[in-house]
Design brief:
The complex is a heterodimer. Chain A contains 20 helices and 28 strands. Chain A is an alpha+beta fold. The chains are: A alpha+beta, B alpha+beta. The interface between A and B is large, with 69 and 70 residues.
């Protein structure tokens, strides 16, 4: 029976009653002021020892008897017709067991898959690729947006234009908003293509057993890969099993069955033995996804009171042969404005396809928006934090601004004299500071199901077919179950990463914990009810009067009337009992969004142009923070990835050949230990009641504004807006008129 | 499935002149190969490599030595055990560890010594095993992440990594742990700056460096003789 309950929801500054209707079997959402025994405590991740000792088995680590190694031949041309592929010589190579061609007659980027082999060793496989004879007819190609949009440009997709009609959206009347503005700022901002660089490359180990396919895949979505493979190989989904015990990063690039996974399965079927196919680093850079580039013309208007009267974004970007280059998310969501006009379009290039990447579109959009806001605030001679406060209506972010400003020392550091002189000790160093707003919306959704199991020996298991992208999923799901069952974490194991477990959604959009944890909690709550029914006669009480706490089942309000959970488990009639749970749709809750903000201080050497990020203060909310330790890891990572996009990362394509010129980990510059600033992380906890756990995802929220705040701080340091990423030393020197 | 063990060029066990590795890197090998090619060219011969490749390198005495082109069998001292391996000269130490010996804790990530994920210890020194040819590791003590500790019996650096959550996806972690462990071995009272430089070549895409620094500093507390361990309570 559905029940109506009134919840106390909110955060330290504002707690209010929210009435929700709970479906049958759903536990009451955790509320403000809830007392937890397992949650909210800094907890080392449960699989930490496996990871720290190299014992965690990634898909890349799977070894099977008789397993072969696959390798893929890729087009050296950015655009060509494949006239013929001769595999005979490759097949004759010692140690080559299978070879195949990819049935695409036209390749549209340098690095597209053409053929593949499976061989006894990785070395033999790689070498055999050189024996494949391919006849190409090269075609005209285009790898940069200006040329792609010019008249007479080579067409990426046959007769289709390289860009379509712009997608226009918005609210109000932007033209009127600008007419009413007391100050207007307009400028062009650009961001380069960024590649994901997951340390574990894309790939899989594929193994056939009759008509059943098992794939150990490096993926963020075991069920997505299962469904893709089932369609491609015309199998019922239950004949495809996908396993991802551990995942060496994904960042949005590993959702479906990519070409390399399909090829691994095809080779395995041809060879009749398992095939491992993990991509080499170069292929990972060119062919497995990227964050599209952007060119954003931003126009902002404000009234004399510093409140935005109009926002206009005219942008285009390219994800190569893929789409998804829009950047408008933040323009609609961060600052309230009555008049917003968005015009954006995708441009196609002969370059590897885009894929989602940690806060897709938002990172690019937030960079341009926040720098434009700073430039406008400068025009108004208004403090940049004050400008943001005036344009903020989210009470959580307001509290976060206060907290962050205090921890960062915004007032002290913004006294210009202090800032400029403190960095100027040797005359060539300039310090700058900035603040940026964050926004995200990772509430998760329905779909996942879970099973909770109690064993007669007193151990508990929870199962859900999600995967741990590195955020600590196993740990947080086990913690949620332990909390519900009144058991210590050590008694509970979470099993994930297998399509044999109940369905779950892909780990994307920061939705894993908010989608899975409520299903786990519901399953644990149902299991608890079953245990109460066993325990009730032992206590001479009714099941409804019982609670599970401190490893016991006891009569509510009479803690002395208790029986150890282990004792109850020993009465389980068989080996175990289990219960199911499902993720029900979101409730109204407290708020349906996330705020957050970050502050940064940088130092710029005006002689060399080198930027150092000194300090970042990150203040975030993500509903209930299950494990502050792993949550802090995610925020650290979000900030550091922002250092990379702000200062270093840039996928470069050679206009003459269409080849990526930096497909390595030394020429494609990534942030390393020495680039790491001092990062101060604070969480503002919100009981949001949007699900029974109130957990919201954090991975993307932690990264949305990190690039922006660093770019803004560099601009502040040198007094010149740095509107093009990455902010490399040559660009700094150019901005200063030194080169 | 077809087996080609019988017709591989160069049978296992083909005698190779013993190398005394002067240097251990693939880079040095490439330099050496250049010297070898030059030497061959000066004799008027045609330089060529066959199917399995061929290794030639100058040893410390400047003598050009050759291995291959086929596989050789030799012993390696890995985690204090002598193990016999049969590999072609082109196979890296990383390749042997992972594909032949099943020691998959060590990861291949960049394949050019740029990211540190494949770091192992060679005589206690951290090296990127993707840049070391297997044949060049003969006569050296090789320690991999598996040799440092196990989940039930972790090395202090590993315990500190777990306690401080110095890992996220965990793929860089074995290399990161090996770099820190080597640093603390040679510099037991390492400072934050020492530690940052010790892991400067280890790339973590999850960006977990701040917790790595914390973990390493905590582990440093275990090492100094006469100093009570920190963070063990």
């Amino acid at each position: 029976m559905a029940r109506q309950v009134t919840l106390k929801l909110g955060f330290a500054d504002e707690v209010r009653d929210v009435t929700v209707v709970l479906p049958d079997g759903e536990p009451i959402p955790w509320q403000w002021g809830e007392q937890f025994s397992v949650l909210r405590k800094e907890t080392p991740r449960v699989d930490g020892p496996l990871k720290a000792t190299g014992s965690a088995r990634y898909s890349y680590d799977i070894q099977m008897p008789g397993m072969l190694y696959g390798a893929i031949l890729r087009s050296p041309y950015a655009h060509a017709m494949v006239r013929s592929v001769d595999l005979s010589e490759a097949r004759r190579q010692n140690g080559v067991i299978a070879a195949l061609r990819v049935e695409d007659n036209e390749v549209r980027f340098a690095g597209q898959e053409v053929a593949a082999v499976a061989a006894l060793s990785p070395e033999v496989a790689t070498q055999a690729l050189r024996q494949i004879k391919v006849e190409y007819t090269p075609l005209p190609f285009v790898v940069d947006m200006d040329n792609a949009m010019a008249a007479g440009a080579p067409k990426v997709f046959g007769s289709r234009p390289n860009f379509g009609e712009p997608h226009v959206s918005g609210v109000g009347d932007a033209a009127r908003g600008f007419r009413e503005a007391a100050a207007v700022h307009e400028a062009l901002y650009t961001t380069p293509v960024q590649t994901h660089v997951s340390l574990e490359t894309h790939g899989a180990v594929a193994s056939w057993n009759d008509d059943e396919l098992t794939v150990w895949c490096s993926t963020q979505g075991v069920f997505t890969v299962r469904d893709d493979l089932a369609v491609l190989f015309e199998l019922p989904p239950d004949k495809v099993r996908v396993i991802t015990e551990y995942l060496g990063g994904g960042f949005g690039s590993k959702f479906g069955a990519g070409a390399e996974v399909v090829i691994a399965a095809r080779l395995a079927r041809l060879a009749g033995v398992p095939v491992k196919l993990m991509l080499p680093r170069g292929a990972e850079h060119v062919a497995t996804g990227n964050r599209p580039c952007s060119s954003q013309r931003v126009k902002l208007g404000t009234g004399a009171d510093g409140k935005l009267t109009a926002i206009e974004l005219t942008s285009h970007g390219s994800g190569g042969i893929g789409g998804g280059a829009g950047t408008s998310g933040p323009y609609r969501a961060v600052y309230p404005c009555a008049n917003v006009r968005i015009e954006e379009r995708d441009v196609y290039l002969n370059a590897g396809p885009s894929s989602p990447m940690r806060a897709p579109g938002w990172v690019q959009g937030m960079f341009a928006l926040e720098l434009a806001v700073d430039e406008l605030a400068h025009k108004l001679k208004l403090d940049r934090l004050e400008f943001r406060r005036r344009n903020n209506i989210n009470p959580v972010r307001a509290a976060e601004f206060d907290l962050g400003a205090q921890r960062f020392g915004w007032a002290e550091k913004s006294a210009a004299a202090v800032v400029k002189s403190s960095g100027g000790r040797s005359g060539h160093l300039r310090r700058g500071i900035a603040v940026a707003s964050c926004a995200w919306h990772s509430l998760g959704g329905s779909g996942p199901e879970a099973i909770a199991v109690a064993r007669r020996d007193g151990r508990f298991e929870v199962r859900v077919g999600t995967q741990d992208i590195g955020t600590g999923t196993r740990t947080v799901l086990a913690m949620v179950a332990a909390e519900e069952l009144g058991m210590p974490l050590s008694a509970v194991t979470a099993q994930i990463g297998d399509t044999r477990f109940p369905f779950s959604v892909p780990s994307g959009g920061s939705s894993t914990s908010p989608s899975d944890s409520p299903a786990i909690r519901q399953a644990a709550a149902h299991l608890k009810q079953k245990l109460f029914r066993i325990g009730a006669p032992m206590l001479g009480a009714e099941p409804d009067d019982l609670e599970a706490r401190d490893g016991t089942i006891r009569v509510r309000f009479e803690p002395a009337r208790a029986v150890a959970m282990a004792e109850v488990c020993r009465r389980i009639p068989g080996d175990s009992i289990s219960a199911e749970g499902e993720r029900v749709p979101n409730y109204q809750g407290f708020r349906n969004d996330q705020a957050g903000c970050q502050f940064a201080e940088v130092e710029v050497d005006i002689e060399t142009g080198v930027v150092r990020v000194l300090k970042v203060v990150a203040v975030h909310d993500a509903g209930l923070i299950i494990d502050p330790l792993t949550a802090r890891s995610q925020v650290n990572g979000g900030v550091i990835m922002g250092v990379g996009f702000a200062l270093f990362e840039d996928r470069r394509l050679d206009p003459q050949t269409g080849l990526m010129v930096n497909p390595t980990m030394d020429d494609y510059k990534l942030p390393g230990p020495l680039d790491t600033p001092d990062i101060d992380v604070t969480f503002v906890e919100v009981a949001n009641g949007v699900t029974n756990t109130g957990v919201i995802g954090l991975g993307e929220a932690a990264h949305v504004c990190s690039t922006a705040v660093i770019a803004c701080a560099v601009s502040d340091a040198i007094g010149v807006p740095m509107r093009d990423l990455p902010i490399t030393p040559d660009r700094v020197l150019a901005a200063l008129g030194k080169v | 499935m077809k087996s080609d063990d019988s017709d591989k060029p160069g049978k296992p066990g083909k005698p190779a002149r013993q190398l005394t590795p002067a240097t251990l890197t693939r880079r040095a090998f490439i330099k050496g190969a250049g010297a070898a090619a030059a030497a061959v060219a000066s004799l008027g011969a045609v330089a060529s490599t066959d199917a399995a490749g061929e290794e030639a390198a100058a040893n410390s005495d400047g003598v050009i030595e050759r291995l291959g082109p086929g596989a050789q069998t030799f012993e390696l001292n890995i985690n204090a055990k002598m193990v016999q391996v049969t590999v072609e000269p082109r196979v890296t130490l990383l390749g042997v560890l992972r594909d032949q010996l099943g020691l998959t804790g060590t990861k291949l990530v960049c394949d050019r010594g740029a990211c540190g994920a494949c770091t192992v210890h060679l005589d206690g020194r951290p090296v990127t095993s993707c840049m070391v040819l297997a044949s060049r590791a003969r006569g050296h003590q090789i320690t991999t992440i598996e040799g440092l500790g196990t989940p039930g019996r972790m090395h202090p650096v590993q315990s500190a990594f777990v306690a401080n959550d110095a890992l996220q996806c965990g793929f860089c972690t074995p290399g990161m742990v090996m770099s820190v462990a080597a640093e603390l071995n040679r510099n037991p009272s390492a400072s934050l700056d020492d530690i940052k430089h010790a892991v400067a070549g280890n790339i973590c895409r999850c960006g977990t460096y701040p917790h790595v620094f914390k973990a390493a500093l905590q582990a440093a507390g275990f090492n100094p003789p006469g100093k009570p361990p920190e963070g063990t309570a």
